[in-house]
Amino acid sequence: MKKKCAIIGTDARLSFLKETLDNELEVKIFPTTIWTEELKVAIMDFQPTIIFLPIPPLQIDSSFVLPESCLLLFVGKTNTEIEQEIQNSQVHAFYYLEDEQWIWENANLTAEGFIYNFYRSENESIYNKKFIITGYGRVGKRLAFALHHLGAEVIISVRSEHQLFEAKSYGYQIEQFEHVVHNQEAHTSYLINTIPNRWLSTSDTARFKKVYDLASNPGCLLESANSIPTNYIHSTSLPGLYFPKDAGYLIAKAVQTQLALLEGEK
């Protein structure tokens, strides 16, 4: 008899996660991002051994209690209620957004998704264009690599001196983060932000051709949503938006790896 797996969420990637796991588990998708009393009852009736939570944290509208049948919980972005239930129960929690293999492979899809998004919105080539990337984590590195190989001029801007000179060693131009806005000639470059902090003023966006903000909510703008400039695009979850099949299979790989590890521990 197959173990039961409950997948909660509305993301397009989840149907491909289900497709992959169907070979080894009895999988059911619950298409919601809100933990309600109705959802809790449905989960309790299903009695899953494995529960997969959506990437954004669940909105909790009823007490978050897992069924006793649940032994493994896959967690995206968490919240207080989820963490409290993990502590109170015997469930093993795996935070799939912190899995290194998934992070790097998802960064590749994010870089490719940005390129696709750029072509669609600009109707121009990347060759010979100037891109300033703020942040040099996984996404920033994969973006720099991809844009550089398409013939773009790439400038990396970060606070970390270590990352700054790492970027320089790969042949990219560098700019101190505190000077990145005012040292650029107005309207000659595109800004790609990957830093998940509010640091850019609305008025400073006017110095760039366009600002592509890839950071998670709330993005990099200091001002409220009521003052969003016309040249600012907040582009989150690009893998799920443009490549849900590939992105779903990446999540499935992380799930299968964790399941195999747990089976090996028995």
From TrEMBL:
Entry-linked Pfam families: AdoHcyase_NAD
Leader sequence residues: none
InterPro entries recorded: Ado_hCys_hydrolase_NAD-bd, NAD(P)-bd_dom_sf
Domain S-adenosyl-L-homocysteine hydrolase NAD binding: residue ranges: 117-185
Protein name: Dipicolinate synthase subunit A
